[in-house]
Amino acid sequence: MPLFGRRSEPAGPLDGVDVVLADLDGVVYAGAGALPHAVESLNRAREGRTLAYITNNASRTDASVAAHLTGLGLVTAADEVVTSPQAAMRLLAQRIAPGSTVLVVGGDGLVDEVEKAGFVMTRSAEDSPAAVVQGFAPEVGWTQLAEAAFALKVPEEEGGIPWIATNTDWTIPQARGVAPGNGTLVSAVHTAIGRLATVAGKPEVPIFEEAVARFGAKHPLFLGDRLDTDILGANRAGIASALVLTGIDRPKHVLAAPAGSQPTYILGDLRELHEPYPEVRLKDGTATVRGASVAIDGPDVRIVSEGDRPIDLVRAGAAAIWGSGRAIFGFRVPERLYADPFHRP
Length: 345
Hints:
- The protein is of the alpha/beta class.
- It is built from ten helices and 19 strands.
């Protein structure tokens, strides 16, 4: 069901999908509260298919995430939540002996998975850990980052221990705005020691492999709000994706998306999961989506017609720019094309 595919009758994003895999921050909620239309749209998406969740946020356990979702009106079991710490444990088990001591930089979500995997948790480099695993938690500070740096001072190729990061999201959406994510904390350790971590979560494939295997997915659809983690990761895993404009990435980011980060669908909010997805007609550098039409005219991106719905204008603009095979910085783009009337935290 590609963005540029032709159909005799428009199909919806959920047509033929057996498992819906939804990101959490910026898709279902921002902070503690649900985003508009998310709960009712996801409950409806559950009808006739499996609904599960994938999150890079390592600060909470799968059980606490499930309880949060249930409290919002999305009745969820712990095993319906796939976390980046779970994907990290898959990687860790391949690289160190069972029962090894692991230095943990992170909160309860990561500690819980380390212990469930049978490893011994420590916070100190003086305990001679066999690996360092790092994930986001609001309480992570200089002391934990310093212990990681002490443990990782010897490069792995010179006999040093493995370093697994649950994820490297630069930001995390909160009710009050956008805050630093785990990527900033991983970067702090990297700056101190000059090493790179192995990443388990999005945009890497292990977290998607865990989800597909757990739910036996044949035709999954992934819902995300970030091009650089959610959509890139889904594309790497060969999973159809929908970018929803309720979180981090905005229309201007969509227009500029490189080939590997272009979603199958672009949605203003999750209500559009249940609508027919309009055909994108691309001819002679002009892309048309219902009443919206955008043309490539040399160095200019030109709005031919705005149409009736802002989301269709974004879809048409993306199709025209993506279809040109040229990077967006080679164009003059009218501000109207990346106007942002869509909800965000």
